[in-house]
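Try this one yourself first.
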């Protein structure tokens, strides 16, 4: 008896055998049969679950080498029992008898059919494991940002795993929409000498299918018409389009070629599903690469006018300010707002409005000389950076020129267009890009309120604002000492049973006259004023005290980019953790992607120190940064927090939902914990649960609460074990702040 597995385009491989008598037979690991043996056998067994061959000659011409092996003098008989799905056998369980066999003796082989079933279960379990391994490899490659070809290669290997006699080749469309096969180095049939796009190769169009298509390959088709299929000796082919969903465009084709000439039918169960999975992974890989390029452009440009957008304007402005160096060179920002644009837009419609804005953008560009940066900040607002000025008046001259150009243009058909412009000029080296832009914005409002179609220069405000910031910085320093900076705790919840998983510590500043100041306001001040180290220590110290009372709950504490980027700050924090009652592995530090982007020497060093200290690292606000997946591989993260912006869109936006579920799949395959932030509704919770998200945090469960409320909350919710929607924690008394 022997177990054979169909393999390769033509062969049958002996997996194992049990020899009862001295029947000469091929040893395990060898391939049997000549060309076409496997397809022939597979076809036979696709028709009948049991094949009885009474004489060697019944094996057909394809079995010639088998016949050679078996010639023992007597003419043996065979029973072959199908292994694998009916329509697509993956192998056979065979019995060779030392004499001719007749179909009238079923009692001699029937009991063994059940045994074949068990063998099949073991084989398919192993194949399933192999597929999971391949799938994991694909996820990793996507996460690592590997080249599309590499990922596609792995995707093809994934599809081929456990599918004897089938070959998977990915085709990628070039810029002209012509498809080229990605050389499948793993298939055993190399395409490296394959002319990727011969003259008479199939029109790319023929593969540009909106739908999956499968069927027997046209036997009459010339090799030229289907060169890859011909190379594989394919009898059937299954073509599934690779779609870039965000652009709704077919970008390639995943082709599965089958050598057994059995119909390739996606409805045939597991194997069919893996084709679809492979295709969707391939699509994700392609989409990711193209989208990164597109995102990079979209991230820096305004789609309507092609001008810089706000983000790239601000970074250009930052650079300009940094480059301006000594005070004798000035940087100016002109903030330019179209007068009465809304009326114009409402009157003539959005199409005209858009065209009008494009025209204004052109007019402005024509009035400034490089290296000026012109941006559209949004709506009808434009901004210009002027560099290398020696005099504030130079900026005024340009602003006047723009104002006049717009006034005398015909940009607004049927009416006179005008703009109001605010001008702000850098004063001190400490000037912030945002600050300068805001000053120009304020000046623009002054221009509007004093009658529009004017240029106004910002003056006094700069000093006042700077003063206010300085004062807040001084007050923060005092607050840190007096204890006015405290910590609140927001629970993180395990969706599986509704139990608490831990708390995130969030800094709170109760200002003596202004009340609570949000961290978004005082963290930057702490960073700018060199207070972030002290603030971080203060928060950690308080939080560790409180968390010392917890049992089995995690404490998450935020680290700002500045903390990670400063030499020596991290050690102080770790010392505090070590000196506390909280086990180090119960502490996780949350850092944002911006930290990782810097890649400065202190950052890398500090991350190394943190990683080896035993505290967990969690990537915060995941998804808001750029190309963040790659970092997950480079640094030893314990988990990620999916940013609130995705969670809030999860019910409404298919895109957000897709992103979250993809992040979940990738994170799971990388062994990372996922916490969804900002969960506010039952609907969001339900969607996250469906997607397999384990941890959640948000106002739905509780707002951040003061230390006094934490123990009560743990009492109430630390032990609950409940399926289904989780009851809000806050209802028990925690009041929103
Ligand atoms: P984060 O780390 O993303 O913290 C989560 C923020 O989302 C918190 O704002 C929290 O109150 C808020 N939040 C939680 N659930 C919901 C929800 O369901 N809906 C909405 N709309 N918001 C929710 P918070 O406390 O104002 O903190 C803002 C940011 O300030 C934090 O964002 C963090 O980056 C920073 N921060 C806070 N405390 C510290 C600290 O001690 N050190 C450092 N370096 N940064 C801190
Ligand atoms: Ca956080
Ligand atoms: Ca966050």
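Now uncover the answer:
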């Amino acid at each position: 008896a022997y177990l054979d597995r169909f393999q390769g385009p033509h062969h049958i491989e002996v997996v194992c055998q049990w020899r009862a008598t001295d029947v000469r037979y091929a040893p395990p690991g060898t391939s049997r049969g000549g060309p076409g043996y496997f397809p022939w056998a597979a076809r036979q067994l696709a028709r009948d679950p049991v094949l009885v061959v009474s004489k060697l000659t019944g094996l057909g011409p394809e079995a010639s080498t088998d016949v050679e092996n078996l010639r023992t003098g007597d003419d043996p008989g065979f029973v072959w029992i199908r292994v694998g799905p009916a329509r697509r056998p993956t192998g056979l369980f065979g019995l060779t008898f030392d004499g001719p066999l007749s179909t009238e003796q079923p009692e001699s082989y029937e009991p063994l059919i059940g045994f074949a079933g068990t063998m099949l279960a073991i084989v398919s379990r192993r194949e399933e494991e192999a597929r999971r391994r391949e799938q994991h490899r694909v996820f990793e490659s996507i996460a690592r940002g590997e080249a599309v070809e590499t990922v596609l290669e792995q995707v093809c290997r994934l599809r081929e795993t456990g599918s004897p006699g089938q070959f998977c080749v990915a085709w990628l469309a070039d810029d002209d929409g012509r498809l080229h096969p990605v050389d499948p180095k793993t298939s055993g049939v190399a395409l490296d000498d394959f002319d990727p796009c011969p003259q008479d190769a199939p029109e790319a169009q023929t593969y540009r299918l909106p739908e999956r298509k499968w069927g027997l390959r046209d036997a009459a088709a010339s090799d030229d018409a289907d060169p890859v299929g011909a190379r594989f000796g394919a009898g059937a082919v299954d073509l599934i389009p690779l779609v870039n969903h965000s652009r709704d465009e077919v970008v390639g084709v995943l082709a599965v070629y089958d050598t057994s000439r059995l119909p390739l039918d996606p409805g045939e169960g597991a194997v069919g599903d893996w084709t679809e999975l492979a295709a969707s992974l391939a699509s994700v890989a392609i989409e990711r690469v193209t989208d990164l390029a597109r995102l990079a452009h979209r991230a820096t440009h305004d789609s309507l006018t092609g001008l810089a957008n706000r983000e790239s304007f601000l970074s250009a402005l930052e650079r300009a300010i940094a480059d301006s160096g000594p005070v004798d060179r000035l940087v100016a920002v002109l903030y330019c707002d179209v007068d009465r644009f809304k009326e114009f837009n409402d009157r003539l419609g959005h199409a005209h409005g858009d065209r009008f804005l494009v025209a204004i953008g052109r007019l402005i560009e024509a009035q400034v000389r490089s290296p000026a940066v012109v941006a559209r900040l949004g709506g009808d607002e434009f901004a210009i950076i002027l560099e290398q000025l020696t005099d504030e008046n130079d900026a005024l001259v340009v602003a006047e020129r723009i104002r006049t150009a717009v006034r005398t243009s015909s940009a607004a058909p049927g009416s006179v267009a005008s703009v109001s412009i605010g001008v702000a000029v850098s004063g001190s080296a400490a000037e912030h890009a945002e600050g300068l832009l805001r000053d120009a914005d304020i000046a623009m409002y002054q221009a509007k309120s004093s009658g529009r179609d004017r240029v106004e220069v910002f003056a006094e405000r700069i000093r006042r604002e700077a003063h206010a910031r300085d004062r807040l910085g001084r007050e923060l320093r005092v607050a840190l000492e007096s204890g006015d900076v405290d910590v609140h705790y927001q629970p993180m919840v395990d969706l599986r049973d509704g139990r608490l998983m831990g708390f995130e510590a969030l800094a709170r500043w109760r200002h003596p006259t202004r009340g609570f100041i949000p961290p978004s306001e005082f963290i930057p001040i702490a960073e700018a004023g060199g207070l972030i180290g002290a603030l971080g220590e203060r928060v950690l110290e308080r939080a560790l005290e409180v968390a010392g009372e917890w049992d089995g709950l995690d404490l998450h504490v935020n680290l700002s980019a500045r903390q990670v980027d400063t030499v020596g700050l991290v050690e102080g924090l770790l010392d505090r953790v070590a000196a506390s009652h909280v086990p180090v592995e119960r502490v996780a530090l949350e850092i944002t992607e911006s930290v990782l982007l810097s890649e400065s020497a202190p950052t890398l060093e500090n991350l190394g120190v943190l990683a080896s200290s035993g505290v967990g690292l969690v990537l915060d606000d995941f998804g808001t940064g750029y190309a963040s997946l790659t970092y997950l591989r480079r640094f030893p993260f314990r988990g990620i927090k999916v940013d609130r912006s995705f969670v809030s869109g999860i019910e409404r936006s298919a895109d957000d939902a897709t992103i979250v579920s993809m992040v979940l799949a990738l994170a799971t395959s990388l062994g990372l914990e996922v916490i969804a932030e900002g969960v506010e509704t039952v609907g969001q919770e339900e969607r996250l649960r469906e997607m397999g998200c384990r941890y959640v945090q948000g106002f739905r469960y509780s707002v951040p609460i003061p230390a006094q409320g934490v123990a009560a909350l743990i009492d109430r919710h630390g032990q609950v074990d409940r399926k289904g929607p989780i009851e809000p924690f806050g209802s028990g008394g925690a009041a929103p702040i």
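Discussion: Confidence is low (pLDDT under 50) at residues 188-205, 731-737. The longest strand covers residues 500-511.
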